[in-house]
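[SOLVED] Need 3D model of a two-part complex

Original post:
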Amino acid sequence: MKILVCISKTPDTTAKIAFADGGKKFEEAGVQWIINPYDEWYSLVRAIELKEKDPTTIIHLVTVGGADAEPIIRKALALGGDEAIRINTDSSDSFYIAAQIAAVAATEKYDIIFTGKETIDYNGASIGGMVAALVDAPYISLATSFLFEGSTATITREIEGGEEVVTVNSPVVVSCQKGVAEQRIPNMRGIMAARTKPLKVLEPAAAEHLTSIESFELPAPKAGVKLVSPDNVEELVRLLHDEAKAI
Amino acid sequence: MVLVYIDHQDNQIKKSTLEAVTYGVALAKQLGTEAHALLLGSVNDDLAALGAYELKNVYQINDAALAHFDAQVFVKTIAAAATKVGATTLLFSHNQTGKAVCAGVSALLKAGLVTGAIELPKTDAGFVVKKTVFSGKAFANVSIQTAIKIISLSPNSFHTTSGAAATASITPLDIPVSAGHVKITAVNKTSGEISLTEADIVVSGGRGLKGPENWGILLDLAKELGAATACSRPVGDAHWRPHHEHVGQTGVQVAPNLYIAIGISGAIQHLAGVNRSKTIVVINKDPEAPFFKAADYGIVGDAFEVLPKLTDAIKKMKASA
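Solution:
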């Protein structure tokens, strides 16, 4: 079995979000970069677990990004995976990124392609669905569990107000979220092994950019909190009813 | 033409779809075109009544293969339908179904996509859509450069308006539907629960409640308010509450009218998931809790004393209204 895990580089969840160039650019100074949590905690770890069960499994990692994405992909390799592919280009357009991943998938023929449910920077939640459409494979979004037996995947996915269980034969593209696996910490052996694992750098395939980010904005700051005494909750109810018109 | 995808579950049109319809009608007016909708399968609701939202027409593809959701099949069918009717803008709700299909449709049509839009696009020069990024910590204005545009609308971002004295026409659409590969073997619904992303009011608890056995006072308040319940990440991680209630950067992002946070300190990751709420109330024992800085109203006090009193006060207000 062959698995492709899509890895994205994102700012740490505690990073201060600020913009430079009059809101045109994300301010990268002082920002710690991490593997997008959904890619790492759920899809990558689940792929590693599948390989632990069936050691003949081959795991490829793919990231679309410049040389500054290499520490992130090495960190992912330290958790597990056999080799990594970095596509040497950068874009905020989901379609362009998905087209790069689909080009890799078209030559390598993966049984399973895992993505996180979204990245925590652009929150597009789009790459999995686009890759699936481009390679014409079934797409299961928002998975909360993933089992694989023979060539059949049994997947639990989030639906509104609950979950449904589906079965589908590979190849399949799956976007993963909480529940699919438990977070792991790379160990020393993994970190050492990652240094010698192959990391291929490919030049991008020809693809269009369909969108571009014009500018960023921060939310307007709150006017300040109105404090109400704990002995006068009636006042809070009045404010919520008369002033905020929230109840 | 603006084409709005009608999402439905249990044969009923979802609230988030009505928001998308309202948004689609407003956008069509802005662009000087018509708003139509696309329904795959069938619903029990009266489709003609969507005319009250000033929706012109509903295209309906009723094929047995569409009775069960399969993203691959739906994507191909929606893309073919959009091409056939000549849609220039497609609208989805950014909910579970929208997330499953809008990206695929975008790839097939090579139509630029913005997911999680929060307001109408600026179309005076170009086509620029505002969406949340950094999990609610910021917004981005994204320009779509293709002839066909696709937007998925963040739930609770656009209020529905209806009341027009009009009916929508219903036009059956003949699109060949391919067979799917996905079999649904079980559906587990949490019955009676209010959908977190669509809820008007959300009552959320954190570690300050000290244990799952203490959730009763929070549930009482939520019940009195008709609110959905949520929790902070530590509470979800400790399994005090189900994972799907976790609100924050790596959980669910919500934008209700009213968010009441109880015993949640307000870590930056939690605030990211809730800061589009219209009104935020924080109840916390610690006056230094960072959440107070993001709140509109606050009570510095013990949740175990404040909550029952608050529930009573709301009951009284409702009784006197």
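Edit: DSSP finds seven helices and 17 strands in chain B.
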